[in-house]
Amino acid sequence: MNLQQHRHSPVEVFRRHCHLSLGGMAAADAGSLEDAVAAAEALPAAHREVYLRGLAEEAWLARQEAGALPAVPAALSGVRPFGASLPTLSELWPLAAAVVVVPVGQAVGDGCGVLHLWCVEDPEGRIHHDQRDFLEGLSERLQDENSLRCLVSASVSEAGPRAAESRSWELGFEMARLALQSRDRSAVRRLAADWLVTGAVRGDRVTWVLLGSKLDLATRREWLLPAASRDEVPLGYRPRGGMRFVGSVTASWNAVLGRGTQDGGSRPWPSDVAVLHSFVSTAWGPVVGAALLSRAPRVVLWHTRAAAVSRRPAQGLRDILFRGLMRAGRMHEAAVELRLVDSANLVNAERQLDDVLRQDLSGGGTVLFNVTQGNRLMSFAAHNLARRYPNLWLVYRDNDSRGLDYTAIRYDGLEATTQRLRGRPTAARVDWGRILEPRRAPAPPDWHGILETLTEGPEIRRESDFLRKV
């Protein structure tokens, strides 16, 4: 460890190292802790106090794991890990708790501190005075939490005033509270030992914080960072433990738990769709179905340079099918436009999509992207952008989908949630069986014949053979 890297004293640097080592300072058994206490005798007095407090926190964390350390280690029972006026380890021992490691530091070049933020369940009021005033805004978050207490240990003496400059501790607090409430001992351990968490919170949304010198920390922990702060991460920055960008508290907790794609159940199509983007091929049905079911006032058809299988089908959809459906009163009024996308170069494809989507996403309303068609490279480009923009929904229609159902995919950082979008037959007066029944698409499609088939008869076939099958 380079003690000259920051302006803090050697004791403070040692304290920061201990704080970052939570979950690994000593093995979680009484014998190893007793040996670690004995080894502390060789340290200078100031370092020894820091180390013993760290071991006391380590022991209390191990206590949270089922069956670990049933009794207080005798050599640590009188240690006060959070300061002279706060409880001893022996007094804290019976209480359920969870802890998160939070970086503290704002100005570039000013170094960075680390704090442990503990959430403690204290229904009997054993802790008469906690540290809710240590962080700006923490008292407000605890107003309705009658039995929840917060304790803080900081790696540098000035960490408190620095932390007060922002709400960057809020995401860590939410993670510790969820870990405590979950009663999931492995989650408590993972949060304490594996993660370094920063972010402000508004409701379920994780919002921007200044990263500054926080990223200077040398750690094997994985960073949990706000997606809104992504642009502050220097190009080429590769922390040893990795980093995860999140946009919500829910996604943050899923990341801590190691969960993958989540099942969000089913829901109707969103009612505030501003624009629908679709890749286009000769398989026109899912493109038309998504346009009708979403009732998007603007439809963007993305085609490649391949004339027969993409460009001409896009032109036919715009000039004949969509225009004819609107004239016949079978489709809502919508502006339909064509855009070119590279089907062979991922960088170009992503840039082409981003140039349009970024503007669409700034205008309010829901933006959908139908990725049913297109090749895999084009789909990768859309998925990459969906990870970047949480309010971009991907929609997909599988050959095995039932009725009018589509699948929606929404990303929150790296984590995805899927939902079944329930379509209503009354969304448009057309023959839905002709649109969504899986079949081999002819090339080129007979657009005039398709239009005639879709619009025959004055009313929608609500109980058509297609819908009765499901």
Structural class: alpha/beta
Number of strands: 16
Q: What is the CA-CA span between the terminal residues?
A: 65 Å
| Domain unit count | 3
Which CATH architecture of the largest domain is right?
3-Layer(aba) Sandwich
Descriptors for this entry?
470 residues; alpha/beta; Ribosomal Protein S5, domain 2; Rossmann fold; eight-stranded mixed sheet; 16 strands; disordered N terminus
Overview of this protein structure:
The chain is an alpha/beta fold and 470 residues long. The protein folds into 3 domains: 19-79, no CATH class; 95-259, Ribosomal Protein S5, domain 2 (2-Layer Sandwich); 266-454, Rossmann fold (3-Layer(aba) Sandwich). The chain is 35% helix and 20% strand. The strands form 4 sheets. It has an 8-stranded mixed beta sheet, sandwiched between helices. Strands 1-2-3 form a 3-stranded antiparallel beta sheet, with helices on both faces. Helix 1 (10-20) runs parallel beside helix 3 and helix 2 runs antiparallel to helix 3. The radius of gyration is 29 Å and the shape is elongated.
Quick structural gist:
It contains 16 helices and 16 strands. It has helices spanning 10-20, 30-39, 45-63, 89-92, 138-141, 159-163, 170-182, 185-194, 249-257, 285-294, 307-327, 346-361, 376-388, 432-436, 447-455, 465-468; strands spanning 97-104, 113-121, 148-154, 195-197, 200-202, 205-207, 222-226, 243-246, 262-268, 273-279, 298-303, 335-340, 366-370, 392-396, 406-412, 415-422. β1 (97-104) and β2 (113-121) form a beta hairpin.
